[in-house]
Amino acid sequence: MNAKITLSLCAAAIIAAGCSTPVAESEYPAPHLEKRGEVTQLIVKGEPFLALACELGNSSSSSAEYMAPHWKALNQAGVNTALAVVTWEMIEPEQGKYDFSSVDRIIAEARQNDLKLCLLWFGSWKNGMSSYQPLYVKQDGERYPLAQTPQGKKLPILSSLGSYTRDADAAAYRAMMAHIREIDSREQTVVMMQMENEVGLHGHSRDYCPAAEKAFVNPVPQALIDYLVAHKDELLPETLKAWEQSGCATSGTWEQVFGKNWRCDEVFMAWNYASYMNHIAAEGKKEYDIPVFVNAWIVQPEDTRAGNYPSGGPQAQNHDIYRAAAPAIDILSPDIYLDDFPEILAMYSRSGNPVFIPESRDGQGGAANAAYAIGAMGAIGYSPFGFERRALDESNETFSELYRLLDGASSEILSAQAEGRIGAAWLKGSSPERLKSSVELGDYIVEFELVSSGRRNGGAPQLTGGTYDPKAIGYGIAIQESEDSFFIIGSNTRVTFRPRSGSETVGLAYVREGRYEGGEWRQLRMLNGDEIQLRYDVLYAIEEGYSGQGLNFGTPHPGSIRVQLYKY
């Protein structure tokens, strides 16, 4: 059976599964990224979309029976987007014969549960290793070469210098993207694609297979040289440092241009991985041009060189190389499981790189990460890994509450991102520098402080002083709605306000607690008195520039408040 016949049969199958007829064109452009004001946003059916996502376990989406109870749980947990794996071996078990039944089923199940999808293409690599390719690839090491050590030992990793492998991967991916366009361009269930997964070479800083050895002693590709020259004044410091090893040479071998060291090897590998994935992504976009991202296995604190982490992946220090080699890849995303989330995210948002976190934590720490990414960094979305297994666990109660709150407020959040009217705080008791944080919006400074367990002056909670629970994690999002009014989301935090200039004191004109139901704001209590009086040592408060009043989000359960301010 040829590929076209297989494609037609799969299209018929998805109609039977309850999806749209694969002949109608969408009245909207395909999902795409668009620069809106200060951020890049994901546009779906003509409107900005905030991806409150989760990544399913690597094998979860391969089984309808396994996923059956989990789809409903994701809905209950406030998830609106699932990151689901599709593998090369699943769709092309025999060369040139495609089976899209798994793709059809995942799309149908997502639609039935009102979820969007980011499909993760596990082709040549997953976590730097190669195990998801079809058997015909695994059995033919001559045609589909493996990476090698300096001693010639073959690694279980497909070489990024294998052009035949690259073309075979690209052919399967392109066929899949044509199929997705045919069955989903109208519904737009699939909104983004991930290319491979955490690519890079383990162990050594570069590949030593024959093709790699030949390429390494050849001149650096002119396309990379041209990019470095054209962007010299805006290169990342890591790129410039590597290039300065040669005095910014504009010709020569890799070592002549980048020095004889492991960093040169890493740049070489980054060029080859990025070029390989760019070819696949570009082939897919010829059929269906939707956003493509790659994800990085980030550098760990104990790592001393490339190869300790997968060498040549889209780590922050390699972004310039990926931009030069891979224009078809839209986002270079980090998988963040380390504690210094804000610092890592800052590294990965440099040079206008859009922010999307495909893998991270859930729980209260994950909620703080999501709030900070969306509120402070203009993120397209956030995604904890393996969340379907824990979606309704007690440990994820506050995470799910935040997702549901963000979903209701998504229109406000997206508008505020584009207009620069939003900021966020990430608070942690074990980090002294993260006990307090402030955001400047309009004429005001919005100050967040982790809820303190200390009390003084007769037992009244104080803005400052006291002790902090080292296990406590808090966060806050502030949106300026008008000159003097703000919408605040908070958890484990107290919020106060100061003027950006002048000696006036800021007071709270009114404070309205509420929540979103069905996308609509429902006002609850009108807060005053004890609910907004954070301090009774008013003289000290005034000396510190505060009124003594503020907003108290005193538990891990997130809340939302609208507040009107005035100055006196």
What's the short story on this structure?
The protein is 32% helix and 26% strand. The protein has 568 residues and is α/β, with parallel strands linked by helices. The chain has an 8-stranded parallel sheet. Strands 14-19-20-25-22-23 form a 6-stranded antiparallel sheet.
- Mean pLDDT level: 93
Rough outline: globular
Strand order of the largest sheet: 11-10-9-6-5-4-13-12
Low-confidence stretches: 1-18, 454-465
CATH level-two architecture of the largest domain: Alpha-Beta Barrel
Strand composition percent: 25-35%
In CATH, the homologous superfamily of the largest domain goes by the name: Glycosidases
| Main sheet makeup | 8 strands, parallel
Number of helices: 17
Q: Please tell me the total number of domains.
A: 2
In the CATH scheme, the class of the largest domain would be Alpha Beta
Any idea of the CATH topology of the largest domain?
Answer: TIM Barrel
Whole-angstrom Rg:
26 Å
Helix content: 25-40%
Q: Work out the number of β strands.
A: 25
Give the CA-CA distance, first to last residue.
79 Å
Q: Structural class, from helix and strand content?
A: alpha/beta
Account of the 3D structure:
- The protein has 2 domains: 3-210 and 266-419, TIM Barrel; 424-567, Chondroitinase Ac, Chain A, domain 3 (Sandwich), CATH 2.60.220.20.
- The chain contains 17 helices and 25 strands.
- Helix 6 (163-184) packs parallel to helix 11, helix 11 crosses helix 12 (319-325) and helix 14 runs parallel beside helix 15.
- The chain is of the alpha/beta class and 568 residues long.
- Residues 1-18 and 454-465 have low confidence and may be disordered.
- The longest helix is centred in the middle third of the chain and has 26 residues, at 262-287.
- An 8-stranded parallel beta sheet has the order 11-10-9-6-5-4-13-12. Strands 14-19-20-25-22-23 form a 6-stranded antiparallel beta sheet. It has a 4-stranded antiparallel beta sheet with strand order 15-16-21-24, with no helix packed on it.
